[in-house]
Design goal:
Elements: E1 2-7, H1 16-30, E2 34-39, E3 47-48, E4 51-52, E5 61-64, H2 67-71
Length: 78
Amino acid sequence: MNILLIVDSLPPINKISSRRAYQLAKFFTVEGHIVHIVTSEKSTSSSQGGYVSDLSAVCKSVTYLSRRFISGCTKIDD
């Protein structure tokens, strides 16, 4: 199954949300799924806290959206 994760950050950025996204992608990949990730924040560091910036082992593709694109989006109220 193809899975798309939309997250605010990925390792090596030192945030709990980036670690959770990494672990979730890793779990889905181990279970045999194909994971694609869309995120807004990219780090220039190569590794931090045991997490590496090369995410090819846990997902097929990573797309980084610019802050400019995200700030132009509007929230739709239900």
